[in-house]
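Obj: model holo form, ligand = adenosine-5'-triphosphate.
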Amino acid sequence: MKLDAIIARSRKFVQPYRVTNGKHFSLTRFAPDDIGPFKKHGKDEAAALLDEGVEALSALQELLYASDTWSVLLVFQAMDAAGKDSAIKHVMSGVNPQGCQVFSFKAPSSEELDHDFLWRCAKRLPERGRIGIFNRSYYEELLVVRVHKELLQRQHLPQRLVTEHIWKQRFQDVAGFERHLARSGVLVLKFFLNVSKEEQKKRFLERLDRPEKNWKFSDADLRERARWSSYMKAYQEAISHTAARHAPWFVVPADHKWFTRLIVAAAIIDAMGSLGLAYPTLGRSQTQMLAKAKRDLQNG
Ligand code: ATP
Ligand code: MG
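Output (holo structure tokens):
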């Protein structure tokens, strides 16, 4: 299938999950077990489409790299076991590792806590021509830190700045940061992998039951699970305050991993396909130089 056709198809797939304006956004309207146009057993069909998508991404990444103007920032946020790692692994499987970087943001170090909350992420932004993936991000400051307000105390902020307005101010700061990035040529795409509480339970039980998956389980996971509704409220607010045309959110159904991957791939293909990427064309003197080099090589 031609790249243009894959881009057009991706646009159609992803449309129901894209949020570009938070005004009327309601997370409850997005079903975690949605599988779009597929039937329950559409897994094989979806896998074939994903293969094409992975190839398309590889072609788009080469164009991105060659044109060296835009960069792409993919932000992944989710509850535990929603499938961030596997979505990243599958969707980027065809991409040249030289043009791609992944950072996982864990609880901040003491050095990081001595800076503003965007600092550690700003240091990891992708250069022009590259794709950067944030596995968790500055959004944790509106999510885990909001759910566990005691974390705010560890940030050494001047007390007079910690007021009831702090969350509103952080929404503004994040939105402003992303606007700045967009204006500087960073394509910002944000993914919330929307898993249901029931499916998370199933996946946790699997992690406990299967020895090769035990390492993935941490008892902190259960503590966070107990705060499910606070997290959903925090996601609702974070998304509604930061969704923008230049930095859209994608609320991706995550109860079926095969569907998650397809939608994530489609979102990236659609957005990169809209950048008007093209291989650089050569000027006259460069074309002449190449012709001369060819002659020299042939005669040498
Ligand atoms: P996995 O799928 O392997 O569990 P993970 O992304 O959950 O991957 P963990 O090491 O389990 O990785 O968890 C990282 C933890 O760091 C999360 O609980 C997250 O909320 C926390 N974290 C990330 N950023 C911040 C932050 N700015 N402040 C406080 N905690 C943070
Ligand atoms: Mg975890």
